[in-house]
Amino acid sequence: MNSALPVEEVYREVHDGETEAQIILLDAKSAFDKVIHTHMMRRVYQAGIEDKHWSLISSLHQNAASTIKWGGNISECFPVSLGVRQGGILSTDLYKLYVNPLLDRLENSNLGIRIGNITCNASACADDIALMSTKEDDTQVLINMAHDFAYMEGYELQPQKSVALNLLSKTHKKNNTNECIFNIGNNVMPKVKQALHLGIIRTTSMKENVTLNVEENIKKARRSAYGLFGGGFHRHNGPRNTGTPV
Predict the structure, then answer these.
(1) 98-107 pLDDT, tens digit each
(2) Rounded to 5 degrees, what angle do the CA atoms 155, 138, 99 make?
(3) Is 188 helix (H, G, I), strand (E, B) or coil?
(4) What φ, ψ does residue 54 adopt, rounded to 5°?
(5) C-alpha–C-alpha distance, residues 31 and 96, integer Å
(6) Is the pLDDT of residue 245 over 60?
(7) Most buried of 31, 125, 225, 238 (most Cβ within 10 A)?
(8) Is residue 3 within 8 Å of 128, Cβ to Cβ?
(9) Ramachandran region, residue 124 (left: φ > 0; alpha: ψ -120 to 50; beta: rest)
């Protein structure tokens, strides 16, 4: 919810300010599996985790090995030299520390959208990263920064799954003829009307955003209700309440 809030505020800023903005939703391929251990441990230290706590985290990733269990059979051990431990309690937090330098660089760039005096050019929850800007040139620079960071850290931003949303206020929507084109590396990023981010449907306008998410939440509530009652509602054969409705 904390990561979704800045994105929601950008929608409101566009709507209230009668302006436009771009939201870039980045998709990293197997980001948790590509973490370089030495880089991660350096960032753990820089975060102020030292002494035995640092050593304990380091020992969990040094000379690590895994096996695969399938059909009651267990494979031979194989070394795990990259990535955070699958299912580990600390894995998500360790990845957040690992990717935090990118967020610092984006913030320090002073590019992208600002709400008041607060820079809101990026929001992230682990490997789900959204970039936000009101200027196309700034947007492309932010994308380039994220792409360069991914290259240095050994993971890949998928150009066909990372998408661009062009947010338009009601005034701009009527007069918009501009087709924004953004690139990840040498690949053109798809421009879409709708995408899912952190479980929330994001569209090109605030009104559509609200409508689609309300409808989706109603569907989820119906599915939960039907599941709760075993797939349907049962007739109650007891005496009917004939009191006056309030």
Answers:
(1) 999 999 999 9
(2) 30
(3) strand
(4) -65, -45
(5) 11
(6) no
(7) 31
(8) yes
(9) beta
Q: How far apart are the first and last CA of the chain?
A: 37
- Tell me phi and psi for residue 105, to 5 degrees: -65, -40
Asked if 45 contacts 51 with a C-beta cutoff of 8 angstroms, the reply is no
pLDDT for residue 37 is more than 80: yes
User: What is the per-residue pLDDT across 144-162, written as a single tens digit (0 to 9) for each?
Assistant: 999 999 999 988 898 888 9
Residue 71 burial (10 A CB sphere; 0-12, 13-18, 19+): exposed
Asked if residues 123 and 86 have their Cβ atoms less than 8 Å apart, the reply is no
Name the range with the highest mean pLDDT among 141-150, 195-204, 219-228: 141-150
Can you give the residue ranges of every domain in the chain? 3-66+76-171+180-229
Report the distance separating Cα 127 and Cα 200, nearest Å.
16
Structure tokens at 56: 């304990």
Please say whether the dihedral angle defined by the alpha carbons of residues 105, 111, 115 and 117, taken in this order, is positive or negative: positive
